[in-house]
Amino acid sequence: MNYTNDSFSCYDPSIVNYRYVSVTWGIIVTLVGTVGNILTVLAFALDKKLQTRFNILIVNLTFADLLYCALLQPFSVDSYLHLYWRSGATFCRVFGMLLFVSNSVSILTLCLIAVSRYLLIANSKLFDRIFSRLGMTLIIIGTWVLGFGSFAPLWNVFVLVQKVCTCSFDRIRGRPYTTILMGFYFVIGLGCVGVFYFLIHRKVKVAAKALDQYKLKKNNGKSGYVAGVSTAVSGKFQELDSGVDLGGSQAHSSEVISEQVPSSKSHVSQQSAVSSKSSGTVVSSQPKDTGSEFKKVTRMCFVVFMFFVVSYIPFLLLNIFDAKNKAPQVLHMIAANLTWLNSCINPILYAAMNRHFKEGYQKVLLICVQKSSRRR
């Protein structure tokens, strides 16, 4: 169909054939993203090992992705298939606002994930104060309130952007507010995520260096002297993401990193050293690297962040450098289609990079298979 004079048409001869690529990709994103994100929510609900304060942030990110994949993506597929927005002006505004709310909540949650990972090793007491049960509730609600509050003022300027066949804000009518919002979320927001992951990297390197020094001194027979240092390093990497009471009680939660650990452990180590000398035996104990799980989870979160950035960079750069819309429409569509990736890829990353999520998915699927076999 050719609706070249219609404000809801995105028809152009150059994209007639490419649209089928978009439609196929859109269907894949819808199915994979919807199933994967639902699996993530169910795994969190059914597996106590996943019910941690930190994973609440993962679930919040999951809901933002699920909003897009399950509700919005099918309408994008329909508009690409027909090269026409068939759902009316009002829902075009609803679609546009929910699209940017989903993106803003994702970015805010990525920021919170990075900040929480940093506080885990930099200031565990502050982490417990901020990310308590009440704190987590307020934080999660706050991301959605800020998302809706940021884009609600643009309600009257959400229209079909024909070059990407998607409802979004009118770039001219929304200025300068839209420029400020995009700068806040995509520049400041994502920039802060990068800064905190850099700080985490520095902390990890310092602790790893301290652990190497411990091993060197241990080999020189000074295990009693440095056992406290080793325990402190390991303690700072103590994994706070497995089997945790969501209440965040310091008395009963394995999430707490005790600041008193080095002195007490050092005392025990010195006693052990005395005992071993008196008995004429040599005790060699290698400290367990409790930071390995922390580093794995942090690496997973960083990869999730990088996929978000990579999926949006072409789209953002194209819109910045092609302000006069001289680039071919198909190029704009390819860049827009790439942004769909960030909404469906996360469950795959969780399964590939996190043992607990993988086991949680398997548990959910096993339950589904068992219930299905019973019905038969």
Q: Count the DSSP helices.
A: 13
**Strand line-up in the sheet with most strands:** 1-2
- Write the element-wise H/E pattern from the N-terminal end onward: HHHHHEEHHHHHHHH
> How would you characterize the largest beta sheet?
2 strands, antiparallel
In round numbers, the mean pLDDT is 83
Helix content: over 70%
Total strand segments: 2
User: Distance between the terminal alpha carbons, to the nearest Å?
Assistant: 46 Å
User: What gross morphology would you assign?
Assistant: globular
Describe the model:
The protein has 376 residues and is an all-alpha fold. It is built from 13 helices and two strands. Strand 1 and strand 2 form a beta hairpin. Helix 1 runs parallel beside helix 10 and helix 3 runs antiparallel to helix 5. The two termini are 46 Å apart. About 16% of the residues have low confidence.
Summarize the structure in short.
This protein has 376 residues and is mainly alpha-helical. The protein contains 13 helices and two strands.
Write the layout of secondary structure elements.
Layout: H1 18-46, H2 53-82, H3 88-122, H4 124-130, H5 133-151, E1 158-161, E2 166-169, H6 177-219, H7 223-236, H8 261-278, H9 291-321, H10 329-339, H11 341-344, H12 346-353, H13 355-375
Antiparallel strand pairs: 1-2
Helix pairs in contact: 1-2, 1-10, 1-13, 2-3, 3-4, 3-5, 3-6, 3-9, 6-7, 6-9, 7-8, 9-10, 9-12, 12-13
